[in-house]
Amino acid sequence: MIADQSWGIIVLAALPWFAAPLAVLWRLRKRTSLAAYSPSLPTHAALELVSVIVPARDEARNMEPCLRSILSTTWPGIEVIVVNDHSADDTGDIARRMAAGDSRVSVIDNPDLPEGWFGKQWACHNGASVARGTFLLFTDADTRHGPELLARSMNASRVRRADLFSVVGAQTMETFWERLLQPHMLGILAARYGDTERLNRSTNPVDKIANGQFMLVRREVYDSAGGHALVRAHVAEDMRMAQEWTRLGYSVQLMEGVDFLETRMYHGFAEIVRGWGKNVYAAGRDTISAGPLGQAAFRMLFPLPMLWDIVPATVALAALAGLVSPAAGAWGAGCYAASALFWIVMHRVFRAPVWYALLHPLAAVALFGIFARAAWKGQNVEWKGRAYASR
Fold first, then answer.
1. Residue 79 reports pLDDT greater than 80
2. Is residue 122 within 8 Å of residue 388, measured between CB atoms?
């Protein structure tokens, strides 16, 4: 039995596990949606030409479905430029076959990677150099575009007077580890950036983020801001570009578009480890501005937030084994239940099976390892056969 006086301590100790999820869910109420903007074309005859630039390195499995989805757009003025970045598979052949059947598509081979550049930024830079559009859309080869995505985005960008307009889409998750870990990672990002209305109003660069899977920019602003050369050595180029453009006084807008854009970022556990390991620590460094000491502390503390979901379940299991007191076990069980309810909501938001939320401590253990590995590697990044040192 638990003594009456212990219940007050248990409730007080568990309050953060109940209050924090409620605060995050409250912030998510203020997401801005692309669905609120019309897919209708402007009434004037001369529509803007949009150059869609697709950097692609070893994307044979994605190339054709990605291009077909882009070409299904209701926006009439597009050209699609595939930048084949020294692919070792059939990416270039598939893209050229698609180009032979549709005059809107062209393919260029990315020049050799110069010192100090990341491959994606170099491919985007070279794609932009041959683009003819007054707008540039940078999109990843693993994306699938709905027919109304570009039209709605062009209208939303105009209404919101955006210089950089970015859309967050739905995530396709097929394997066990994708369904377990992707909602957890997306939930962490939502906790920081879920209130998109506040972020869109903010002029603080640290508040800004963009999604490299869909970034629509005005060509004249892209050129005047320095293009991808501005972020050539940053692994999270989308976030960094949003921050740098905000510093330069440009308008950066982020919007949800889960009904119009979808992406399968990673296929299975190994790709998740490599992918988030590449992005998460280096991107996290760009969200703080505390000098060298702050950066050093951040590196040491970076994995520790995962203990939030690990410790309560561990304590509850320890109580069942008789290793800790029943009062501690009650605290662990209550905190686990509160977190499980939160992750159930997150799994519903991100369209993943909700029962995976019950395994959220396992997700936290895996992410602790991914985060610790990324922090240990620091600025050293490996991706698709290339090694970089991120700034």
1. yes
2. no
